[in-house]
Design a protein that fits this description.
Layout: H1 5-10, E1 20-24, E2 32-38, E3 42-48, E4 54-60, H2 63-76, E5 94-100, E6 106-112, H3 119-140, E7 145-146, H4 159-173, E8 179-180, E9 186-192, E10 197-207, E11 210-218, H5 228-240, E12 246-249, E13 256-263, H6 271-297, H7 302-310
Antiparallel strand pairs: 1-2, 1-5, 2-3, 3-4, 4-7, 5-6, 8-9, 9-10, 10-11, 11-13, 12-13
Helix pairs in contact: 2-3, 5-6, 5-7, 6-7
Amino acid sequence: MPSNSTVSFLGGPDTWHRIRIALDDTHPLWGGKRLEVTGDGHARLRVRERDHTAVEYTLTIGPERAQALVSQCVAADPLAAHWRPGEHSPEEIATRLELTNAAGETAVITHWANDRTDPHFEAVRALLLELATEVERLGSRMQPRLLAAAPPSPPATDPAQALLAVVKRFLAANGWSFDQHPERPILHIPFQGTHARWTAYAQVRAFDGIAQLLFYSVMPFTVPAEKRLAVAEFITRANYGLILGNFELDFNDGEVRYKTSIEVTGGELTDYLIRPLLYTNVLMMDKYLPGILAVVFGDLSPAEAVQQVEGG
């Protein structure tokens, strides 16, 4: 009899009341849904819209039904799902299936929109999507709870601080951690990408009636001197096709960063202006970082590396 990887990970039915199953297709740009089901009979659905407003629904389905759902998931054996790894654009939607066993260990299966289908994964996704529809339908009858946003910041007389307060309010309301430079209108924003962790920065410039907001993602290592010309060619090739923002290289110290910016002189800085600047910024660094690594530490030419990243 063939082994079942999911049974091996989750254990037997006597532990299922302590496990958790989650299906999450939330995308930082497009929004999405996250459903969590616990073995003791509770379901929670979080729906995040594209404008990043979010609503949460909860529903008690009972231990018996939860155990039946877990049994169906185990029978489908989603941990046996397999597809060929490939390159994915930051705009591509991914669905993550998370299985947490009684010991608190979590296994994650990620299926990207352009991956081929796998019956092990699709069977479980169909079960959970059906339950998510039910939770949303019943929850909407029970006054769904709006997730709290950050309270408005107090008015600031300094133009730079006033703009920075808008950015801080946006970050807090959307779950971003940050800290502020003690002397300058700059925020430090840690970010965990697919390939590395780095710090992004939000900087406000306000002078002579001009108001600007800039975001930078700074690559977590500097380029060695002997590789800077090659990396310069890489970012020049990459920048040619970019719409919002661009890469920059400091030839003096090898720092590479991605910059997005906007001038708001005479206008109002809103969430709809901030969102594409921040999310495009970190997603572009995450997308192109493997190509820079391939040029610095691998054998690819700048042209080959850009072609590999962009899938050309």
